[in-house]
Write a structure and sequence with these properties.
Neuraminidase; extended; 37 strands; 3 domains; alpha+beta; five-stranded antiparallel sheet; Phosphatase 2c, domain 1; 740 residues
Length: 740
């Protein structure tokens, strides 16, 4: 039996992993024999939780430092050097959290495995783990602590939950012997929980490393896994011992003339061949020289041939007619200019203006309004025991602030400039934000500017796919643009006029997404299915789509047979307000050969034809201009039973115009996020009872003051804790905001 073991690894390329994962995998197999015998091969996995690109860069630097310190340290054994390298990386990350921009909620868990000879050495920090499959059984490395270690007197052996959490840590270590056919895997805790223990063990035991890694990642994606998905599979195989099987012998030529230049057996044949070759080259040179001489001779002869002089015209024909036409055009242009100036003068003269007798009353109205606003703010800002009126009596402060806000509107209507009212308006609106639970957006970043990369872009609608990519319908050039927020890239995947599978694409009209597909219906009533991975449109059968009204704008999809990639389609007809449902057969790819069925069993209180947006989950939700209609399994609830509460600032913002809605889970709360176009804000409501929660407005001043003025798409991601992140289609930009 040989004493040497070799490793074979398998992992998924970075390009094929989801854009929301930040796990880092690193390995090093020395090519130098002495280093391989003394240090062995090092395999590392960093599980990054609730992080971003900054935390991913910090984890990459930490793994590089662990690899460098481990191979440099020769003062202790393998396990001791690995533990020291992990502790040193923890100290660096602890002192550099602020400079690296690591968020407070971010966590980095590291698992390190060294294969040296026939032994394995493991050190870990955090929930990331290594598993070994041997003889059909799977074990965790390091093994879970024994029952006796649960005693509080043994808790000093426990480690910190994340790299950089504490200054001094003691990694959890283990070492043991390996045998041929063992399978090791460095796996993140999130991937193991989503895939399942049995699936993980079956894939490691029955597949080669590369196939096992690919299978587990596909299973993770099918089961709806999000976030951490780090995985590195290692197969242990034995290297057979080498032996001398044959002695090399020198080879001698069998003929004495072997290796000499080839010569003809005919006497003088080689000399005559060389002579005729030189004669052929001389003839070629002579022909080229004769051709050049004939060309030069003909050039000389043609130089003496007489030529006719060129006669240029002495008069320009029809000069008088052209001059007369120019004068007529100038006269017509002058008359148009005079008519335009006359129209402008008449319009300016007809504009209403303040009469001299009205100037004094308007001035008095403005002065009284400003004094009323100043008096109200003085009462609100007066502090008693260190507290203003907002903290002491919110209801009284609300009434005074509403009066001050209306007074400022009267002053502006009386002719006071916005610049003069700005200091007082800032004080009033600041107090109103505190009373009405208004948060001003601060963390705003542009992800992609579509106008800089696409000509004539006019974004109209946006949906978010399962892989967190954004799909945008562009009405300007009739195309569908795919945006990857993680990589900040955008590309066109569908274009009107393009010849596709079984037809020619028309201008996109409706769009929805579910499972692994994006569905597009164009203006010619053709349905197309675009796979999230292949990103190529394919024609899809959708019976009954020809009867859909031109005023329809709402389409949604819902996956109903996980893990099969089959989904239902829901459409709200903009003419008669009916909701139609398409159900496909259990066939892949998805087709809808049967006509749609009517989904509503009764007429709702508010017509579905007036709905602004649509969400489908276990129920169907129709967003109206001022509220929401809930439909439970086809039965619409009365508005008295379920409706969105009006925002509390109805006195200062009485008009509502809801346009977009998205649902997200923030911790243990299910919320609706609604875009109100009338007031340029985002509202949050409880999903269960429609209660008002909070609202967000754009910054009062600065370049993003008009951010929420025109929004065509809204996508809010669910988070286990902390403020959610929203992606907006604002104008021609994809903007990332934090809803604090």
């Amino acid at each position: 039996m040989s004493n040497r073991l070799a490793t074979r690894i398998g992992l998924v390329p970075v390009e094929e992993r989801a854009s929301d994962t930040h796990d880092v995998v690193r390995f090093h197999e020395p090519a130098i024999g002495s280093l391989s015998r003394s240090k062995g091969s090092l395999f590392l996995l960093a599980q990054v939780t609730a992080g971003d690109r900054a935390l991913e860069r910090a984890a990459t630097q930490a793994l590089e430092a662990i690899e460098r310190d481990y191979y440099y340290d020769l003062s202790v054994g393998t396990l001791g050097a690995l533990a020291k390298a992990l502790a040193a990386a923890n100290r660096r990350l602890f002192h550099a959290r602020r400079s690296l921009g690591i968020p407070r909620r971010g966590a980095v868990s590291v698992i390190a495995v060294v294969v040296r000879g026939r032994d394995a050495h493991v050190a870990k920090l955090g929930p990331a783990a290594a598993v070994i499959v041997r003889q059909g059984r799977m074990y965790e490395l390091p093994p879970p602590p024994a029952v006796r270690e649960q005693d509080p007197r043994h808790r000093e052996r426990r480690v910190a939950a994340t790299l950089g959490e504490a200054l001094a840590i003691e990694p959890y270590t283990w070492q043991g012997e390996l045998v041929s056919a063992d399978r090791l895997a460095l796996v993140s805790r999130n991937l193991a929980q989503v895939v399942g223990i049995e699936e993980l063990k079956a894939a490691l035991a029955g597949l080669r490393p590369a196939a096992a890694a690919e299978h587990l990642h596909q299973l993770f994606a099918i089961r709806g896994g999000r976030g951490s998905d780090g995985l590195l599979v290692i197969e242990i195989e034995e290297v057979p011992a080498t032996a001398t099987t044959r002695q090399l012998e020198p080879v001698r030529p069998a003929e004495p003339l072997a290796g000499l230049p080839d010569q003809s057996p005919v006497p003088l044949a080689d000399a005559l061949g060389a002579f005729f070759g030189r004669v052929a080259k001389a003839i070629d040179h002579a022909q080229a020289a004769i051709a050049r001489g004939v060309l030069v001779l003909m050039s000389w002869i043609l130089a003496f041939v007489p030529r006719r002089r060129v006669e240029y015209p002495r008069r320009v024909a029809r000069t008088a007619l052209r001059e007369e036409g120019r004068r007529r055009r100038l006269g017509a242009l002058a008359m148009v200019g005079v008519a335009l100036l006359t129209a402008i003068g008449v319009t300016v003269a007809s504009l209403p203006s303040a009469r001299p007798t009205d100037a004094i009353p308007r001035l008095e109205v403005a002065r009284a309004a400003i004094q009323q606003a100043e008096a109200a703010m003085a009462r609100v800002e007066h502090r008693v025991d260190g507290q203003d009126l907002v903290a002491r009596a919110p209801d009284r402060a609300k009434g005074l602030l509403n009066d001050a806000f209306l007074a400022l509107q009267r002053a502006a209507a009386a002719g006071v400039s916005d610049q003069a009212l700005e200091p007082l308006r800032a004080r009033v609106e600041g107090r109103l934000d505190a009373v009405y639970r208004v948060v001003r957006l601060r963390d705003v970043a542009t992800v992609v500017d579509l106008a800089s990369g696409f000509d004539g872009v006019q974004p109209a609608r946006m949906v978010t796919a399962r892989d967190v990519t954004l799909w945008i319908v562009d009405d300007g050039r009739g195309r569908v643009i795919r945006v990857d927020p993680g990589r900040r890239t955008a590309r066109t995947v569908y274009r009107a006029g393009e010849r596709l599978d079984r037809g020619t694409a028309a201008a996109p009209w409706l769009i929805a997404t579910a499972a692994t597909d994006v569905v597009v219906i164009d203006r010619q009533r053709q349905a197309w299915r675009i796979d999230l991975v292949q990103q190529v449109p394919h024609r899809m059968v959708l019976a009954g789509v020809d009867a859909v009204s031109d005023r329809t704008s709402l389409l949604a999809a819902l996956q109903h047979r996980p893990p099969l990639q089959i989904f239902n389609l829901y459409l709200v007809d903009g003419r008669d307000g009916s909701v139609r449902k398409w159900t496909p057969p259990a066939v892949i790819p998805v087709q809808f050969p049967q006509p749609p069925q009517s989904y509503l069993s009764a007429r709702p209180d508010l017509s579905a034809a007036d709905a602004r947006d649509l969400i489908v989950d276990a129920n169907l939700w129709l967003l109206q201009s001022r509220t929401m209609t809930r439909v439970n399994f086809g039965t619409p609830l009365p508005q008295a039973e379920y409706s969105l509460d009006p925002p509390p600032d109805g006195d200062v913002r009485p008009r509502l115009d809801y346009r977009l809605v998205d649902a997200a889970s923030i911790g243990d709360r299910d919320l609706f996020f609604v875009y109100d176009a009338a007031n340029g804000r985002i509202l949050a409501f409880q999903r269960g009872d429609g209660a008002f929660v909070k609202q967000w407005l754009a910054p009062r001043t600065g370049p993003e003051a008009e951010l929420l003025g025109s929004v065509h798409g809204l996508s809010v991601a669910s988070v286990p804790d902390g403020p959610p992140v929203a992606l907006l289609l604002a104008g021609s930009r994809i903007v990332r905001i934090v809803l604090e």
